[in-house]
Amino acid sequence: MSQHSIRSRSATALLALIITSAAEAAPPPKKPPTTAAILEESKPTEWRALDPENTIYLELAGGRVVMELAPAFAPKHVANIKTLAREGYYDGLAFMRSQDNYVVQWGDPAGDAKEKQRPMKNGQAALKSEFDRAWSKDLSFTPLGNVDGYSPEGGFSSGFPAGRDLAKGRIWLAHCYAMLGAGRGDTADSGSGAELYVVIGNAPRHLDRNVTLVGRVVQGMELLSVLPRGTGALGFYEKPEQYVPIKSIKVAADVAESARVKLEVMRTESDSFKRLIAARRNRSEDWFLAKADYVELCNVPIPVRAAVPTAD
Amino acid sequence: MSQHSIRSRSATALLALIITSAAEAAPPPKKPPTTAAILEESKPTEWRALDPENTIYLELAGGRVVMELAPAFAPKHVANIKTLAREGYYDGLAFMRSQDNYVVQWGDPAGDAKEKQRPMKNGQAALKSEFDRAWSKDLSFTPLGNVDGYSPEGGFSSGFPAGRDLAKGRIWLAHCYAMLGAGRGDTADSGSGAELYVVIGNAPRHLDRNVTLVGRVVQGMELLSVLPRGTGALGFYEKPEQYVPIKSIKVAADVAESARVKLEVMRTESDSFKRLIAARRNRSEDWFLAKADYVELCNVPIPVRAAVPTAD
User: Fold this and answer.
1) Which of A47, A122, A153, A180 is deepest in the core (most CB within 10 A)?
2) Is residue A177 a contact partner of residue A224, using CB atoms and an 8 Å limit?
3) Are A144 and A155 in contact (CB under 8 A)?
4) Which candidate from A103, A188, A298 shows the least CB-CB separation from B15?
């Protein structure tokens, strides 16, 4: 039985999705590189440190969730989220929704009861939507190199999965796993970032260009993806005691440097990332017998690692 | 602030993925139907009851997970799983792996320690792989009607998402969310169904034709998808006390009728299901401002509902 035991080294290769470990041995010569090998061989310049001004820490009883904001795509929302974080608006709010294979979402438990709602000081309760933006060469764009059914051209821009329409000169972020979005009401301009959701299921790409995406969870997804599913419609919790409280949301720049998480994200315009896309298109690990010769936009991981200490 | 409050009826429409509820109002005339309207208008003959001989109940402390097996695609594995269930092989095994955005997996905690492994009576420890099978008109096939990057033709066969290659005369099940697969070791024929996994993340379609898929979770995914993520490599739990015990796995036909869950699955060859695909391609709910005009294979829900009582 041991040849297929779940704990054997061979069997654990079964469903490997190591994106930050260098545990796998380098591949034999002449084979295309594995994900692990690409990460190992990557150059320091192919990684960028998270910018503390565009990173937020969401603190739960279970630990910290680190999110990178995307000011190039949603500048008004990102500014508002930082304002709200800095005035303490989010502290004490709660996750009220956990819908299986879809999203977790937080907001003000006072909900529609206006008089009870948490007040905003400088933050805004509604903003112009930022569903997409003009394509500009100031943005980087690394094409996926495979068809993306949800956009004329799928790829990666400045560290985020994106769709692009060159004919119309537009670009937008894509609803992949771990993406962070600003809930809205019926009208386009009714979101603000006061209520945010994170994708925890199969990429709901039909939401692209219908909601403003503002960033991505880069560490701590495992704290959000396991929130008990709500039994109400759309995965809302039915009882207030089920709400999962948010201790605080802070801009990383406002946190003492010693208390920050030092993370680096692989530059999506780097050669290593381009090699990674190719490696995900056709897995070279021996375990894979059938090669897909295709990779879906949201199946390319954007690697994150602990910052490598420098000498200075 | 109420216009975007998370609890307002308008805002909760935000990310609707109701597949079994008829809570939404019927759409105004002349608009294409919503998912809810299609379900409401479907005919009784467009649903089929689960076959108790090909349904298994996985019992956890938190409740029951119902899985439909796919004997048309993996006859040997399905037969072996039923044999193993009937000889009590699974009872007392445990989930030992929960990898974020990927799979949960169970097996024998004794692992590689041969002398401690749970013995099999009539069950088999290794089987010929059933990664794909010959296409036959005896199978139903409802095309997705959109490009599927992972197969020449994506669609739905006998209630499961599938890829098809008519030129080669082959068809196979697709690794969508909630699909159930048989873990294997390095060789194609090293799996058996003794160790099974369920997809809990973005569809890992690169596994298609690399592992034998044996069925799908039709109820109780929310019990599996929230299992605490393992901190070991590949999401394995590092301590035995973290294992999530399986009370039992039984074939539904062996469970007293009064203790069975009566579920119906929408026939994927029905007109209503074809309408559902179209409705998911372009959402007609007012909330959607941008229409995708595309739907990814794994973004079409295969509806499940409580069986409608009949008069007899």
Assistant:
1) A180
2) no
3) yes
4) A103
The verdict on a CB contact (< 8 Å) between B195 and A4 is yes
**CB–CB of B235/B204 below 8 Å?**
no
Per-residue pLDDT of chain B (312 residues; tens, 9 = 90+): 233 333 333 344 433 333 333 344 555 556 789 999 999 999 999 999 999 999 999 999 999 999 999 999 999 999 999 999 999 999 999 999 999 999 999 999 987 677 888 999 999 999 999 999 999 999 999 999 999 999 999 999 999 999 999 999 999 999 999 999 999 999 999 999 999 999 999 999 999 999 999 999 999 999 999 999 999 999 999 999 999 999 999 999 999 999 999 999 999 999 999 999 999 999 988 899 999 999 999 999 999 999 987 655
Greatest alpha-carbon pair distance for chain A in Å reads 68
Where on the phi/psi map is residue B293: left (φ > 0), alpha (ψ -120 to 50), or beta?
left
Contact B185 A96 (CB under 8 A): no
> Rounded to an integer, what distance in angstroms lies between the CA atom of residue A74 and that of residue A83?
14
> Of A214, A204, A89, A91, nearest to A160 (Cα)?
A214
> Which residue's structure tokens are 């690990």?
A285
Q: Which residues of B touch A220 (CB under 8 A)?
A: none
Partners of residue B266 on adjacent β-strands = B47
CB A194 within 8 A of CB A89: yes
Q: Which residue of B has its CA nearest to A281?
A: B206
Out of A12, A183, A236, the one facing B233 most closely (by C-beta) is A12
The CA distance from A148 to B204, in Å, is: 16
Residues of B whose CB is below 8 A from A192 = 4
Structure tokens at A220: 């701590």
Report the alpha-carbon distance of residue A75 to residue B192 in Å, rounded.
52
